[in-house]
């Protein structure tokens, strides 16, 4: 057997292992990430269309003519991670500069999901006062720049008003 042929085959195997395998991994993980994101967006759109919309306002007060019969603090949070393909694209964008669009869809999904979760906690609410959204990025391990994911926390005061023309029960 010719040793140059064997060496050439080994060289080709190493090239495929070190260059082609990561590219195949990026394509596979990119496909999985796209499918996961599309399913999540479909779930969000379906719940937004079928769910009851509760007004969420950033002010602390309400109409003084309305009588409050129930109020309590409500909060919800969500953590969404970047998939490997988006993380790769974001690192390329950090090298060349510009907007990181993969983070924009991540933030959009997180904001919409946390609002849906907050509304699910107070289905009988008439409104949520003093509504706030807090965001924080979850950094990669080993002190690298960029985000591995994002957490969004939503909170506010759920308020339910007495029906017009009725006498509300006394508060205890």
TrEMBL record:
Its protein name is Heavy metal-binding domain-containing protein
Membrane-traversing stretches: 12-35
- Classification via InterPro entries: UPF0145_dom_sf, UPF0145_YbjQ-like
Q: What's the source species for this entry?
A: Synoicihabitans lomoniglobus
UniProt keyword Hydrolase, yes or no: no
Q: Is Transmembrane there in the keyword field?
A: yes
* Pfam families hit by this protein: YbjQ_1
| Family affiliation | Belongs to the UPF0145 family.
Keywords of this protein's UniProt record, alphabetized? Membrane, Transmembrane, Transmembrane helix
